[in-house]
Amino acid sequence: MVQNSFPSPISVNAEELACERGGRPIFEGISFSLSGGEVLAIVGPNGTGKSSLLRMIAGLLFPVAGSVTIKAGTLEEGFLHFLAYGDGLRSVFTVEENLKLWSRIYGGDVGGEAIYDALEEVGLAHAMHLPARALSTGQRRRAGLARLVLSKRPVWLLDEPTSGLDRDGEAVLGGLMRTHLDAGGAIIAATHLTLPVPPTRTLELQ
Ligand SMILES: Nc1ncnc2c1ncn2[C@@H]1O[C@H](COP(=O)(O)OP(=O)(O)OP(=O)(O)O)[C@@H](O)[C@H]1O
Question: Where do the ABC transporter domain residues begin and end (predicted)?
Fold first, then answer.
């Protein structure tokens, strides 16, 4: 039994979702359900709609049929974190300034110490005062992981989360995922690669 550290019990239910992009059908009849402590992996060849499905779950793309219901707190509290390939970093700001900005968006407005701790957790504390433009691809991905740490949202949507990470970065991601699941969070990840934490179930798009 998972201990839920989040304010509400967590569930994500999708029923008979259908997706069109540019007027072209991408998938249909997609249903799944997920609870806190569980990981859903979305797999399938390029162009089958993995990212589109994540965007649909996030409410960024409307289904042409079906529905998604997420129970995980209130809109005001914020219940989703979408980690996509775009890292959301402003290049002229330092890593610390970027994370401070994001922490305000997450409603936390945390101090430098919490930002340092989040960066240390993802192996990026040494780069805290560098402008984001100076980060390597993998370091930018790690900064994205630091955002995950700071956001404290119950449902994580991860698009190719291991992409660009070295072996140590994958281990860091695995640690964050396990901590999140142990706290009762839920994770939905679109991936071509093996996730550092085995999925509870897998949804294959074709
Ligand atoms: N903005 C858009 N307008 C029109 N078609 C789009 C748009 N975005 C994506 N598509 C199309 O939707 C389909 C699904 O794209 P999506 O990015 O969801 O696939 P994916 O499974 O995540 O692919 P990959 O494995 O390459 O990341 C593709 O055929 C793509 O060309």
Answer: 12-205
How many CA atoms within 13 Å lie on the side-chain side of 100?
12
Beta bridge partners of 81: 156
Beta strands of 36-83 (E only): which ranges? 39-43, 65-71, 80-83
Q: Is the CB–ligand 1 distance for residue 22 below 6 Å?
A: yes
For ligand 1, whether the C-beta of 74 sits within 6 Å is: no
Cα(51) to ligand 1 centroid in Å equals 7
Question: Which residues in 61-88 are b (16+ Cβ under 10 Å) and which e?
Answer: bebeebebebebbeeeebbbbbbbeebb
> Which residues neighbour 114 within 8 Å (Cβ) at sequence distance 6 or greater?
103, 108, 150
Mean pLDDT of the chain: 93
Q: What is the ipTM of this complex?
A: 0.97
* Cα 129 from Cα 13, distance rounded (Å): 41
Can you tell me which atom of ligand 1 is nearest the CA of 205? 21
List the residue whose alpha carbon is closest to atom 27 of ligand 1: 46
